[in-house]
Amino acid sequence: MRILAVESSCDETSVAILEDGKKVLSHIVLSQMDIHAIYGGVVPEIASRNHVVHMTRVFEQALREANIDVDDIDLVAVTKGPGLIGSLLVGINAATAFAFANSIPLIGTNHLIGHIYAANIEHDLKFPALALLVSGGHTELIYMKDHMEFELLGTTQDDAVGEAYDKVARTLGLSYPGGPIVDKLAALGEDTYHLPRSFLDRDAFNFSFSGLKSAVINLVHNAEQKGEEVNINNMCASFQASVLDVLIEKTKLAAEKYQVKQIIVAGGVAANRGLRKRIFNEIPNIEIVIPSMKYCTDNAAMIAAAAYYQYQKEGALHNYLLGGYSTLNFEE
Predict the structure, then answer these.
(1) What's the pLDDT score for residue 72?
(2) Tell me: the pLDDT tens digits for 270-301?
């Protein structure tokens, strides 16, 4: 089964074609990172306008790279949310037009489920499984009994972990996107600032990073007022140590409580090298799978991978009417 998928939930314009949810025939991702770096973050209106400019070209490139005809496409899948509503609607309209014009079934796929199934492209998911979903907009622990069966165990009560990374980077005068830079500098520093660890209720699986972000801002502000120099590498190392202590501890507790066979780490922050190193070292008795770097950030291949199992369970839409949503609900 050949699935053409479209992803445009934020600032990446992506089209991919997968066979049977596994074999990647083409995978095109056009990033707008350089454009939004000027503003220190994604500007929704600019993101959606750039999707409009480049979407057709990305479609054409994906089909050309896959070396197949339109008639060979069995299903069109598109991210329906959550995300920036303007960006989502560009992808939804493009996918709908393509599917309708060529009489191909259409399905709308959840962005968060896509991140989880990115791991299934190169690995085989084993159930029951636990997914740690960490990105710029999401921090969630999700229990999976089987394919396309989800139970939300915990989520962030304020900032997502990736959002906290970017805000701390901005406070330290680092460029956007801040996450990879903080991760890189953390490897050069030491945890000398001993920032707080917000575990909330240790028996529950919710997260909070707002207080940690505020602690960094206050330390930097106080140092500036006193004319003291902040050691950037050590601050990055201290911040990252605090984040990873909480993420790994809660993941470990959830994995033990639910007796899972596998832990899936997914989302943009899954590319964090510190997280990748520590989680394998500190949870050694459970299989851990993490997508390759190219499948951690937003991409259409993960949408096609998820759509393959979603189609088996739900089938395609009975019509071509599909809307988007911006809410953080992975069950929609």
Answers:
(1) 97
(2) 999 999 999 999 999 999 999 999 999 999 99
Assigned domain for 265 exists: yes
End-to-end CA distance of the chain: 24
User: What is the pTM for the complete model shown?
Assistant: 0.94
Q: Which helix (H) or strand (E) holds 282?
A: helix 273-282
CATH number (domain holding residue 100): 3.30.420.40
Residues 81 and 203 in one domain: no
227 lies in a domain? Answer: yes
- Report whether 264 contacts 116 (CB < 8 A): yes
Q: Tell me, yes or no, whether 100 and 129 share the same domain.
A: no
Q: How confident is the model at residue 267 (pLDDT cuts 50, 70, 90)?
A: very high
Please check whether residues 144 and 284 belong to one and the same domain: yes
Bridge partners for 151 per DSSP = 143
Domain limits for position 177: 125-290
Domain assignment present for 52: yes
131, β-bridge pairs: 142, 264
- Give domain status of residue 323, yes or no: no
Task: Please confirm whether the linkage preceding 284 is cis (ω < 30° from 0).
Answer: no
| Rg (the chain; Cα; Å) | 20
> What is the edge-to-edge ordering of all strands in the sheet holding 106-110?
23-31, 12-19, 2-7, 75-81, 106-110
Q: How far, in whole angstroms, is CA 85 from its chain's centroid?
A: 17
pLDDT of 239 > 90? The answer is yes
Distance between CA atoms of residues 319 and 308, nearest Å: 19
pLDDT category of residue 329 using cuts at 50, 70 and 90? low
